[in-house]
Amino acid sequence: MKSVTLKELSLLLDGVIQGDDTLVIHSVATLEHASAGQISFLANSKYRAQLENTQASAVLLSAKDAQDYQGTALIVKDPYVGFARVAQYLDTTPKAAVGIHPSAHIDPSAQLGEGVAIGANAVIGANVILGEHVQIGAGTVIGQDVIIGSNTRLWANVTLYHNVHIGQDCIIHSGAVIGSDGFGYANERGQWIKIPQTGGVRIGDRVEIGASTTIDRGALGHTEIHSGVIIDNQVQIAHNDIIGENTAIAGSTTIAGSVTIGKYCIIGGNSAVAGHLSIADGVHISGSTNVTGNMREAGVYSSATVAMENQLWRRNTVRFRQLDELFLRVKTLEKNLQTPD
Fold first, then answer.
1. I need a surface site. Which of 89, 201, 203, 224 has the fewest CB within 10 A?
2. Nearest 10 degrees: CA dihedral of 84, 90, 93, 96?
3. What are phi and psi of 64, to 5 degrees?
4. What confidence tier does 341 reach under pLDDT thresholds 50, 70, 90?
């Protein structure tokens, strides 16, 4: 277990200590469940009632919240960001692989950088290039002509098809499939004719891809995931999509083919984006939103209705189907009111 003094954490976060700077911290926890040796944080005012009773040795607080707190605190500009940095510093997550397991199959043409680790039963294909300190988890399959940048970590049972390039400092979680065929077919008198997907996938630096997420290869050009993007579990990204820098996509979202999403966007979980659309920088899409048109300006967009009692939902569904009729009736009434006798 890693441990650090509160003084060391203050230097890490450029924070101000209120109380005992010699306290030893070994992990992070919530206000409600923290115990001695742990540090917690208050980033949402609705949890303020838990602050007075917390058993945490120290709490990350803003200057405003620290004014009335009698316990030991580390005062920082943004307690939630501070929590994230402390959690990283104290992280004890094991490596995806250590050393090169004898059961791994590595093609003789593959190039392995210094410190590469490859787990049991992993397969490394022809002409693969692995940068320094890359970790390849057990059972992972790396297709031919794949390039993976330094310090990138692939957990167990990840599949990378051929011609996939991944940057540095990325994390790809178990079950992710990158470079599978896009959904490309022509129809000839009712028969589906498969269109070979000859493009690849290009992923930038510091990208995290969640478990069981699928990113299809391009039909002709490449599918592109730019640097700093974070993608949750069970997300579908179709062929030739382009995802801009530092965009976040939450779980179970589906993005159809040839969509361009700008920088710094946030897409809520269970959303769906129709194909061949363009979404501007800085767009925030609420969860369960269906996107069927271009979004040319930054802002918050929503479409899903909130949960309600079933009988009320049934009545409102009927009323929704009556909207067109009601609209026409209102237009007729307006026209009659505007027509002189």
1. 89
2. 90
3. -65, -45
4. low
pTM beyond 0.85: yes
Count of Cβ atoms closer than 10 Å to residue 57 Cβ: 21
Per DSSP, the residues of 173-241 read: -TT-EEEEPP--EEEETTEEEE------EEE-SS-EE-TT-EEEPPSSS-EEE-TT-EE-TT-EE-TT-
Q: Which of 101, 239, 276, 284 is catalytic?
A: 239
Query: How many residues are recorded in the chain?
Result: 341
Give residue 335's pLDDT.
Answer: 87
One-letter amino acid for residue 303 of the chain: S
Could you give the angle at which helices 310-321 and 323-338 cross, rounded to 10 degrees? Answer: 50
- Pairing of the two strands 111-112 and 58-61: unpaired
The crossing angle, in degrees rounded to 10, of helices 79-89 and 6-13 is 120
Token code pair at residue 7: 């003084």
pLDDT of residue 68: 86
Residue 173 annotated in active site: no
Query: What is the distance between the alpha carbons of residues 125 and 286, in angstroms, rounded to a whole number?
Result: 40
